[in-house]
Amino acid sequence: MVAQRPRIVFVHGSVMGGRPTWSGQRSLGDRFEIDVVERPGFPPNPDVDHVDFEEHAALLAGSLSAEAHLVGHSYGGLISLLAAAAVPDRVRSLTVIEPPATGIAAGDPAADAFTREGIEWWQNGPTEDPDAFLRGFLTYVGSDYVPPTPLTSRLAQGARTLIVERGPWEAAIPFDVLAAAPFPTLVVSGAHHAAFDAVCDVLAARLGAERLELPGYGHTVQQHPEFNERLADFVLGAESLANG
User: Fold this and answer.
1) Which of 18, 87, 121, 223 could be bridged to 12 by S-S, CB 3.0 to 4.6 A?
2) Do you find a cis peptide bond into 44, omega within 30 degrees of 0?
3) Are 52 and 161 in contact (CB under 8 A)?
């Protein structure tokens, strides 16, 4: 009988959908069952008029009919934290990459600035111009990615979805539930933005999580050449823990 491969569910963040966000993780399919989520508002799904991390977390939690290892990037990391807290019995491990939950690091100057500037951008930024809004957002999060002109249809839809996102700084992370959960957690950052570092440090400290920094790739830490092996080691370690 062939042993079932561990299942990893990848949850993307803002702007980019699942397939482009996790393109570098396709090779993990040789060792794991890979499930790439495409959240509402991202291709091939239609546009939406509102994005709420709590609603998307409920959708993700409801989709976990079998145990899985959750991996979330950015806004998807925030969603993964909430989903894992909702159904801890269905989660084998949790990995989050720079979730922008800056509210949990309130009092840290960089986190406070991120929250303040985000609120200002969503309230007063060029929400009628997805292209301009996206380019300003990329500067805001410290990304050096330069979108094409004109935007591709995928990026244009991602920008429209970005505009209707609920601010991630509003998130209340259920630390007690997550800290008591039976699965291990890995918190990853790219050592490029003090606000993300502050959030990741708080998460690691309060959850007793493993902390990993992979610098040189900005906010897209999953593109780092060491990321896949570090993730694979973490997932397999979680499998041994769960099966031991």
Assistant:
1) 18
2) yes
3) no
Inform me whether the pLDDT recorded for 13 exceeds 60: yes
Instruction: Please report how many Cα atoms fall inside a 13 Å half-sphere around the Cα of residue 143, on the Cβ side.
Output: 17
N- to C-terminal Cα distance for the chain?
Answer: 20
Give the model's pLDDT for residue 2.
44
CATH superfamily of 7-238: Alpha/Beta hydrolase fold, catalytic domain (3.40.50.1820)
pTM: 0.96
Count each helix (H run) and each strand (E run) in the chain, helices first.
9, 6
Asked if 24 and 222 touch (Cβ cutoff 8 Å), the reply is yes
Cross-strand pairs, 81: none
165: alpha, beta or left? (left if phi > 0; alpha if psi -120 to 50) = beta
- Checking phi first, is residue 4 left (phi over 0); if not, alpha (psi -120 to 50) or beta? beta
Q: Which two tokens stand for residue 163?
A: 């505009």
Which positions ≥6 away from 81 have C-beta within 8 Å? 57, 72, 94, 96, 99, 101, 171, 173, 178, 203
Residue 210 has pLDDT above 60, yes or no: yes
Domain locations along the chain:
7-238
- Is the confidence at residue 1, as pLDDT, over 80? no
pLDDT in tens, 137-158: 998 887 888 999 999 999 999 9
Position 94: which residue type? Answer: L
Residue 43, token pair as written in the block: 């291709």
